[in-house]
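Format notes (please read before filing issues)

Several people have asked whether sequences and structure tokens are stored in separate files. They are not. Every record keeps both together, in the order shown below: the sequence lines, then the token lines. Line labels are part of the format and must not be stripped during preprocessing.
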Amino acid sequence: MRPTAYVAALVLAVAPLATAATAAQPSLCRRLAARVGRSPKVVWKSGGSLKRWISPATAAVWPLERGSPQAAAYARLRHALAARGLLTPHQPAELHRLPGTRVYMVGTMAGSAECQSAAFAEIGARGAPHLLPNPRGYTAPCWNVHGNLARVLGQPAYVESGTVSMTERDPLVRITPWTGAGWGRVCRLTVHLRYKLELVKRFCGDSVVCGAANAIAVDIARSYRSYRHLAQPPQRLLGPYNDVSDFSYQPASVTGPAGSVAVMRAWHIVRRQGQAGEAGAVSLYRVYTSVFPTFGRNAPNSGWDDSFSYVDFALFPVRLDGHLYLGAVGYNGVGWREGGHTLFALYETPVSGQRSLAPLAGFDVASSVVGVQGTSVVEGTAALPPRPGM
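Then the structure lines:
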């Protein structure tokens, strides 16, 4: 279930502005893609983003100072929202104004995933607010994507920007231009980055097994990232935990019943320990993970850095030097929140009646950006994320 959505944005009509894309004028997304293609690769390697071409509206916090230029307009907007039950009279909020226009955005933030909801309006010449339909690109974004009013390459628009997921840094921007007479056609640009994987931490309980697994740790991380990319389309930015994944590592795959039995016993142990750890609390998704082994060498933020996220956590059989072991892989994180590191752990093959997994080794594989792989642009309905359950 998504966290409580927040109340937000109101937009005012402005004098006519010729900003809509036409047959002779590419969309703002295509124009941004062209800028990305011309930008030096080293810029993206050092943490570059689309922000250099996008100027978000500034914000003022309610209550505003009496007599300020924004106070009267903001009061009317809040009153219009409150009349429709979209904002309580004393609810904290922010006022955003798009420079050079009479476009405003009123918003508050709530919920652990920082979700947004919005209402849009224009204020006429005499100050009367008139609510407008939401821009097509408005999706009530959460967590790693947020919406704002902004000028994109100098043109006014409603913009949602962030990253394609919690585990990747590929920038995403969804743009709905303001034409002066209404909202234009939505488009979405994604910048696909190139990554390098590197083993940054190794935790060994058994030095022989650890050495053998060391040779495949990065390859397992690469295979898992590819699996996640195929199993979870980029437009799904936030949602419930997936069912237990069917990930397998083909170079060291195990055929026959021994591997299946090992995984089945491991899931039985993991689920039993997870339910016991809830102490009577109700889990929404009943998805649990094994404990990532560090053998006492915990990071300062071990609860995040050295813990498996619940999302798409996988258990799978691995054969090394002729011996069968149990592997576990997933992104680091807490609960449904994921980080950018891939964690791979190796355990002894569980036997019947075993009550906890016996760890042998743990590996932390980090990713770093080495450049731009390319860009993709979609227009209209295709630019929107799928509805929940679709």
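For reference, the curators noted about this record: The radius of gyration is 25 Å. Residues 28-185 form one domain.
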